[in-house]
């Protein structure tokens, strides 16, 4: 019988041997949050300025829509993982032969290694739906590029895939009945999926939650699209699987998982190559606002980093690329399509601020704790009055300042008074999830509503409280009371259970590792 290998947990050398093991498990148990970098803007920040911005925001993964040499040089020695792209305009050339693909790799990949950490090549963008004439050369191009990588011993380090539009998936609700457009199944999809699976790569899907929401003409709830908490009656159930969906993102991703499973690729990883929410648009884009963009991106990042997965693949890591680093003001398409950026290309300042917590340094310079609860513009005045009365009464908000003769009495409007009362209630309850809704007539804002001699409660409490705010569709609650305005249970115990964070596998592993280190150090004294 061979000897059993044992490791003493009190040995420092043994712990050092185990560190790579734990690091591997941690990395496999989490998805990443990357960002897309498009360049269709009139401003001209230098590549060095762009990379410095990425570094300040602790962004570890970036996807380029080309293989711009200046940008790749600027990314050298940063450690940032880079996905380069073969533009659709070059696809026909790359897909002609091994020689053309090899030349592309030499010029756009090999020339920048190893200083620049190129980890993936995206071959075309939404080719099947936007450039169908090039569809038949897509898989050959992917194979030629891999051959070029193999010849340079890089195939294990650099993965090859291609991004896909969600419209490629038909009958996507309920998710369990989704399938791929059969026009492309045999000639392109099956060979592509076989290539991705055999090379250890991933399927790339763009998820445009805003477009899906807008085109639903009111069928899809805004809060469902924004990943906001839902009341039980608004949770969507797949009648075939009984899976419950609390946001649109998971439903679209699961539709992709089901479509892949139908073609016998049920374990193929999926990377979300584009997703975001526009902060502006034209007159038809009433929900394309900085506020909604902040809510969507903040909620989505929290969802990804919590490692919750989807109903079909629970606890399975999901990686995303946020759409996108800068607004692209000269981009062809809708006004909304030009306003997906987190930052302004001319000033390098945030277009809006995120509300993140427990995300480490990621996008820290684009995160604010300056949060207020105000009346939602356009809300019905009667609904506002009811909510105002509740906040100042049962809700026990401090409404002294909006009484006649006090500092915040003017302007004497229900909108202004409700905003003050809502913020007082929100700050009193430490800005917990669900405390800024008031049956849909309130919203979280990053703009200080204080004016003149009237100072809102959040102006002072924002300096000491550091929590992530998230707009909610649940009924407004009063911590300590047992019921809200509709008589629903809001006891402190039930709220604490709802808000208790769940430990991810990585957190558990890190805790174990920390305990082992403590044991080791203790044993030395």
From TrEMBL:
Belongs to the glycosyl hydrolase 17 family. Keywords: Cell membrane, Disulfide bond, Glycoprotein, Glycosidase, GPI-anchor, Hydrolase, Lipoprotein, Membrane, Plant defense, Signal. The keyword Disulfide bond applies. This is glucan endo-1,3-beta-D-glucosidase. Residues 1-31 form the signal peptide. It holds the Pfam family X8. It catalyses: Hydrolysis of (1->3)-beta-D-glucosidic linkages in (1->3)-beta-D-glucans. InterPro entries: GH, Glyco_hydro_17, Glyco_hydro_17_plant, X8. Coiled coil: none annotated. It comes from Ceratopteris richardii (Triangle waterfern). It is found in: Cell membrane. GO terms for cellular component: plasma membrane; plasmodesma; side of membrane. The keyword Lipoprotein applies. GO terms for biological process: carbohydrate metabolic process; defense response. It is a lipid-anchor; GPI-anchor. GO terms for molecular function: glucan endo-1,3-beta-D-glucosidase activity. Residues 371-456 form the X8 domain. Its EC number is 3.2.1.39.
